[in-house]
Amino acid sequence: MSTPIVILVRPQLGENIGMAARAMLNGGLTEMRLVRPRDGWPNEAAWAAASGADRVLDEAKLYATVADAIADLNHVYATTARSRAQAKPIVTARQAGAELRDLIADTRRCGVLFGPERAGLENDEVAAADTVLTVPLNPDFTSLNLAQAVLLLAYEWYQAGDQTPGRYLAGGADVPAPKAEFENFMDRLVAHLERGGFMTEPQLRHTVTRNLRNLFQRAAPTEQELRTLHGAVKALTKAGTPE
């Protein structure tokens, strides 16, 4: 599957181009186009700041105008934090990530315009795009540097196709133990606590058992951890709990 093309319009510093390349590769974006970079191209400072994202810079293409840079594209997004009073659809970076997945799956070539660091895209450059892309941020401070803006787009593009669960247990193959094994441990624990005199008031047995159950369930013990707890219970009941 192809990916969106990142088009940096009149970027001012080689370091910013390099950091943008790094942000792109974080999100799986590899194609960069440059429109009249202020300090010329190639720029050694870009490679120094790219932290290994050399492939993006090595293959970057140089253009004289925005029109040239987008001539072969079917759909173009323009990033801006300011209202431009232009009748265009406006999407968030999250929405753009999902839309780009659909557009590219439909074999359309897509690109995203990013303006120069100081002032952003000019109105005519925004007008050349099909859709305006903006990022909802603190309305009192929406300023982003170039690499941050590129990273937000790259992140949302990547997330739109990523299957990583929102929450999972670290530790390789270990997963929470099956409920049957957890219940087996709870039955054994409660039985030993009763024999040891912990359940002094029968009417509180249910409440105490529920509290212990919630305590251990919050830990989501794995099978190995349940075996460790079984061993601890066995050792305590064999030796007797110290006073």
UniProtKB/TrEMBL annotation:
Keyword Membrane, does the record have it? no
Extract one GO BP annotation from the record.
Answer: tRNA nucleoside ribose methylation
Q: What InterPro entries does the record tag this protein with? A: Alpha/beta_knot_MTases (IPR029028), RNA_MeTrfase_TrmJ/LasT (IPR004384), SpoU_MeTrfase (IPR001537), tRNA_m1G_MTases_N (IPR029026)
Where do the coiled-coil regions begin and end?
A: none
What sequence ranges are listed for the domain tRNA/rRNA methyltransferase SpoU type? 5-155
A cellular component term from Gene Ontology for this protein is: cytosol
Family the UniProt entry places it in: Belongs to the class IV-like SAM-binding methyltransferase superfamily. RNA methyltransferase TrmH family.
Task: Note one Pfam family from the annotation.
Answer: SpoU_methylase
Keyword vocabulary terms for this entry: Methyltransferase, S-adenosyl-L-methionine, Transferase
- Any one GO molecular-function label of the UniProt entry: RNA methyltransferase activity
Keyword Mitochondrion listed? The answer is no
Question: What protein name applies here?
Answer: Putative tRNA/rRNA methyltransferase
Source organism phylogeny: Bacteria, Pseudomonadati, Pseudomonadota, Alphaproteobacteria, Rhodospirillales
